[in-house]
Amino acid sequence: MKPDDYPVAVRGGISGQSDRFRAERKVGKYAARAREDGCFDRFADHVLQSALSSLQSPLRLLTLPHLCNSVAARLPALGRGTRILIEGFILELVSSRALLRLNTVSQKHEPYQTLYAAQDGGVVEEALSNLHDRVRAVSSLSLSQAASAVPSALAARMQNIPILLGALLYRGLATTDTAPGVALESIRLPFAVPRF
Amino acid sequence: MLWKASGFPLLCLDSSTSVLTSSGPAPVGEIRRGDGLLCLVRGTPQFVGVAETARVGRTQAVCVFSDAGHLIAAPETTLVASTGPCEMSTFEAKRDVGAIGRMDGSWPLLEVLSTSERGWHHGTMSPGAPEVLARVMAFGAAGAVEQPVLRVGSHDKLTLARVAHTVFGAPYDCEPGPAGWSWLRGAAPGRVAANAPTLEAALVDCVLALWQPGGAEQLYRLPIEMEALSFFTFGLLHFAGIPFKVEFRPRYLPLHVDVSLVRRRDSHAVVQAVVSAQVKELVELRLEGRGCYAVVNGLLCAQ
Prior knowledge:
Helices cover 43% and strands 17% of the residues of chain A. By secondary structure, chain A is α+β, with helices and mostly antiparallel strands.
């Protein structure tokens, strides 16, 4: 796909070129235009392939802004007017279930969501199930113990582990003694002996 | 498939969706042949027996979010809208195809069971109280197997004390936690209250305590993935005749559901979003009566 065929946000500075753009759609919170309708579909496919490249090999759990940046970095000659549309295309991939969401909590114990490829849904579910079983069996789990309990595809990237443990906190299946604002070190069952 | 033989609309629901039986709300997955489900028959609420149930091999479904609650069902299942019967797949097709990454669409209003309509049950939940408490323990189960620990929202002390008294009897321990959760356990190991309350209000309190406080009075919040609990809560509120209003946020792809105990403005439900869904199990129901509307999560499904 040539950069000239990328859709562009109407508010992204395309004045003077409007005769070039015959197709218009809403993309996320923006109105966007392109040469023809097919350009939107082709660009959506580009975003999907770039998103999958970002999320797989190794398997990554990424926030929406991180994934948007990662996708943008993989698309050549991307202008600002197109870049701001990527979020809308990714949200469409989420609603069509090509990408899945995992809700978790941040270091400040605030909820946020990460995204991963639908093909990795089984691995992520297995990891969460393993971690829950493990913490129920031994009452508390450190980061390194957690890393050994999840499938190797996820453990290959250490940043995934606190996200997975945070998902158990988000669901109220475990608690932590790590103070808000500090990187998550361990989780434990409610009423289990605290680890410091 | 049963529906092909019957010629009547398919009633094929996610196994965790809530239907109303004479003893309270129950997940579709637990419904057996002969159970009575609340239906509207020529506009009158009455219990209609289940003739047959079947597990369906497929897992592809559609989720319709509305201000009266959400429903997950097979694409061929027929919701009753103000414009007439409408398949779930039709709702999905009414999404604006010219809008990428948005949850825009023009959906018809949905018919709902009126919470002021109480003629179909006797006003107490005594037959179902132990079952409701058992479900509270199951939905809120946290901790090790040997001692029941109940995950609750981080509500005020008075609310938690009331719930702990209902569930465990007094005394109890409470541990506050992160992300809006706290946990309760009976001080006597393994003990759960022997005398289940018969008051609906106490049971509704217990179920709503499993939700997180939403930041305003009588406003409760739950992560969207805890759908079995939200379905059961909506069913219980309908059963108890308590009016409520539901908001799914953010609208384009809901992450959490807010329920507030206020009456909705409209007598119909307003659709907020429609997404395709993948479920663990779909269950098909065939009722003994035909041409009636089954009450599912408070919405009406044609059969």
